């Protein structure tokens, strides 16, 4: 009957050991970056978990960005516990995260992702989010999107290929009768009936660019730090969430308040929530899966037998 306690103690020791290893990796990386530049602080000693943030914060901006990138790519960042992550990101230079996002890559040349999306259209917030599968490749930009089951627009499909029609997309409304597919403007009434965005805005790159664009406005208004930093689990994915609050809100800014969830492995956001001047959320985006893939021409061809055009 004592065996479960032994297992519990062993499991606790293993978790503690994992945290200790992560802290040692993070501290050794901070030391390496500091020693790599004569202008950096001389030696960063005492590999204690509570000192990781202060030691990294002592690095110059360029080295903080490099450190953050290596910590993410190596997996050391996601090994930190919630308190360590909050302390770290609160201690970083205000420009570190924007530089990290800007230098990217905050997307892939060709990839497939699934996402949840809710938008307030004409004042109405949908009871359920749309669940979408998107295939996207660049140069030229080509997009295939499908609304998956369990969402209010299940069955719809669209294809956009800027090499064929820059200002139009091809799609159908799905549903029981699978209404005949047609060409429609990317800015037209049909496109805007379900979203405030264009089809070209799909993808992690758009959220990253919007963060950078709004960040410049924040800086001009003297907003250099998030109002809050915390760690959340978004549909099973652990992220560092940054909450920014603007002094005047819309229309000067995209939103009165923004919450952005940073992936712990890559320089892109897995979640974005936008709130209006009334304090109500008007948009929520969650990237559930993000997978680099290579597609052939049929992936963006309505004649693909896998599709229902």
**Strand sequence of the main sheet, in spatial order?**
6-5-4-3-2-1-11-10-9-8-7
Number of domains: 2
Which fold does the CATH topology of the largest domain refer to?
outer membrane lipoprotein receptor (LolB), chain A
Number of strands: 11
What Rg do the Cα atoms give? Answer: 22 Å
What name goes with the CATH superfamily of the largest domain?
Lipoprotein localisation LolA/LolB/LppX
Distance between the amino and carboxyl termini: 62 Å
Average of per-residue pLDDT values: 84
- Net shape: globular
Q: List low-confidence stretches.
A: 1-9, 11-16, 18-25, 37-49
Task: Assign the CATH class of the largest domain.
Answer: Mainly Beta
Assigned CATH architecture of the largest domain = Clam
Number of helices: 8
Order of helices and strands: HHHHHHEEEEEEHHEEEEE
Helix content: 25-40%
Based on secondary structure, the structural category is alpha+beta
Largest sheet: 11 strands, antiparallel
Portion in strands? 25-35%
What can you see in these coordinates?
- The chain has 309 residues and is α+β, with helices and mostly antiparallel strands.
- It folds into two domains: 3-93, no CATH class; 103-309, Lipoprotein localisation LolA/LolB/LppX (outer membrane lipoprotein receptor (LolB), chain A), CATH 2.50.20.10.
- The protein is 31% helix and 26% strand.
- It has eight helices and eleven strands.
- The chain has helices at residues 3-35, 52-57, 61-74, 76-79, 82-91, 96-103, 189-192, 204-220; strands at residues 110-119, 130-137, 142-147, 157-161, 168-172, 182-185, 228-234, 237-245, 257-263, 269-275, 281-292.
- It has an eleven-stranded antiparallel β-sheet with strand order 6-5-4-3-2-1-11-10-9-8-7.
- A hairpin with a 5-residue loop joins strand 9 (257-263) and strand 10.
- Helix 1 runs antiparallel to helix 3 (61-74) and helix 3 (61-74) crosses helix 6.
- The longest helix has 33 residues, at 3-35.
- The chain is globular, with a radius of gyration of 22 Å.
- Mean pLDDT is 84; it is low at 1-9, 11-16, 18-25 and 37-49.
């Amino acid at each position: 009957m004592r065996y479960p306690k032994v297992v519990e103690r062993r499991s606790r020791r293993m978790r503690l050991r994992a945290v200790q290893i992560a802290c040692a990796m993070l501290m050794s990386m901070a030391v390496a970056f500091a020693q790599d530049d004569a202008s950096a602080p001389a030696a960063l000693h005492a590999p204690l978990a509570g000192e990781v943030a202060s030691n990294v914060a002592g690095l110059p901006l360029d080295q903080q960005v490099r450190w953050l990138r290596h910590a993410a790519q190596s997996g050391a960042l996601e090994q930190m516990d919630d308190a360590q992550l909050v302390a770290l990101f609160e201690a970083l230079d205000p420009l570190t995260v924007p530089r990290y996002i800007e230098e990217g890559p905050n997307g892939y040349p060709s990839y497939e992702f699934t996402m949840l999306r809710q938008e307030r259209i004409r004042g109405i917030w949908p009871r359920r989010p749309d669940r979408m599968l998107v295939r996207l490749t660049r140069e030229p930009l080509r997009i295939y999107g499908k609304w998956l089951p369990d969402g209010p627009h299940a069955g719809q499909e669209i294809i956009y290929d800027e090499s064929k029609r820059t200002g139009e997309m091809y799609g159908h409304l799905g549903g029981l009768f699978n209404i005949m597919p047609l060409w429609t403007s990317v800015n037209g009434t049909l496109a805007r009936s379900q979203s405030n965005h264009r089809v070209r805005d799909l993808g992690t790159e758009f959220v990253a660019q919007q963060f950078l664009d709004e960040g410049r406005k924040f800086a001009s208004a003297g907003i250099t730090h998030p109002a809050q930093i915390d760690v959340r689990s978004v549909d099973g994915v652990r992220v560092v969430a940054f909450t920014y609050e603007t002094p005047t809100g819309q229309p000067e800014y995209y939103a009165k308040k923004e919450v952005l969830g940073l992936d712990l492995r890559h320089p892109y956001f897995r979640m974005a929530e936008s709130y209006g001047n009334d304090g109500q959320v008007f948009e929520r985006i969650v990237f559930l899966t993000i997978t680099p893939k290579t597609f052939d021409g049929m992936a963006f061809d309505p004649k693909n037998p896998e599709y229902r055009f």
